[in-house]
């Protein structure tokens, strides 16, 4: 059937309009898609594929992948936790005393008590001292049960312990020891926090185990519970 010139003109115009609309739509959508793609994180664009699996990233998975905030429990601020924390962290550096150093610093005899360049502090509990004794001239300040001892005023300290608070003179050192050295280091840190001069605070690293192993002199402990 013959097609009229008018019908051909209508078809040509319709096709042109359709093509123009399609091109215009793509042109208007393309910038939008380009902006959306650039706004998304690299990990959320499309798919990441491999030969064995395909992983789809979505907004939900991105939110779930964010690190959750951590809350600090009130128990982490307890004194016992602080003690463990402080013992694990690097702290002040103290002079490390050895067996020979302690032996040389002790008075040569009980008749010369003025020759005492060191103050020895045994920080073990009284129950431990009853079975082992102490290094000669040492005083006992059990830090596990009396952790506030060095913070006390001098009169309060003497009332509680029965002897003067150990305060080194300018030419003296105060040396802490325990059974194996752990409590002694903690006691030294506490002493500095309480106001003692760090340069006058020392630690017998080997403590009682080293002293006993090397045959150091001992004194019987005659004190009681604080």
UniProtKB/TrEMBL annotation:
Protein name: Rhodanese domain-containing protein
Single GO cellular component term: mitochondrion
Residues annotated as domain Rhodanese: 114-220
Pfam families: Rhodanese (PF00581)
UniProt-annotated stretches for the region Disordered: 71-91
Polar residues bias (residue ranges): 71-84
GO molecular function terms listed in the Swiss-Prot or TrEMBL record: thiosulfate-cyanide sulfurtransferase activity
Species: Penicillium oxalicum (strain 114-2 / CGMCC 5302)
């Amino acid at each position: 059937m013959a097609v009229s010139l008018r019908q051909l003109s209508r078809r040509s115009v319709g096709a042109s309009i359709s093509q123009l609309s399609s091109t215009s739509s793509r042109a208007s959508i393309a910038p939008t898609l380009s902006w959306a793609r650039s706004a998304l994180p690299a990990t959320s664009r499309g798919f990441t594929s491999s030969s064995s699996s395909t992983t789809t990233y979505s907004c939900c998975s991105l939110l779930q992948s964010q690190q959750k905030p951590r809350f600090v429990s009130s128990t982490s601020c307890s004194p016992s936790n602080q003690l463990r924390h402080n013992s694990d962290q690097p702290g002040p550096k103290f002079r490390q005393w050895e067996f020979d150093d302690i032996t040389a610093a002790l008075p040569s005899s009980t008749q010369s008590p003025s020759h005492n360049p060191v103050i020895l502090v045994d920080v073990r509990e009284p129950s431990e001292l009853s079975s082992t004794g102490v290094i000669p001239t040492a005083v006992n300040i059990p830090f596990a049960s009396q952790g506030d001892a060095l913070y006390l005023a001098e009169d309060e300290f003497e009332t509680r312990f029965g002897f003067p608070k150990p305060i080194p003179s300018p030419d003296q050192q105060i040396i802490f020891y325990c059974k194996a050295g752990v409590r002694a280091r903690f006691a030294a840190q506490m002493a500095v926090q309480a106001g003692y001069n760090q340069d006058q605070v020392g630690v017998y690293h080997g403590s009682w185990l080293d002293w006993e192993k090397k045959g150091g002199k001992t004194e019987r402990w005659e004190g009681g519970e604080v």
